[in-house]
Design a protein that fits this description.
Layout lengths: L1 H23 L30 H9 L5
Protein name: Lipoprotein
InterPro entries: YnbE
């Protein structure tokens, strides 16, 4: 029974050392870029305005075209 325990302990030690070596090699660096970030966007905006007016106002505009 003792050799099985030693074998498991040895395997656990080897695995722990391997994991520590692999995780020790990772380098993570966060830095700001040297140049500014440019975002070019082409935006096309189309709009349509519908105006509904009363019949009296419409007649007034037709009769007095000098207003506009």
């Amino acid at each position: 029974m003792k050799p099985l325990f030693l074998k498991n302990l040895f395997l656990f030690t080897i695995m722990a050392m391997g994991i520590s070596i692999l995780t020790g090699c990772i380098r993570l660096e966060v830095a700001t870029p040297d140049k500014p970030i440019n975002i070019n966007m082409n935006v096309k905006i189309e709009h349509e305005i519908n105006v509904k007016i009363d019949r009296q106002v419409e007649d007034l505009l037709k009769n007095n075209s000098a207003i506009f």
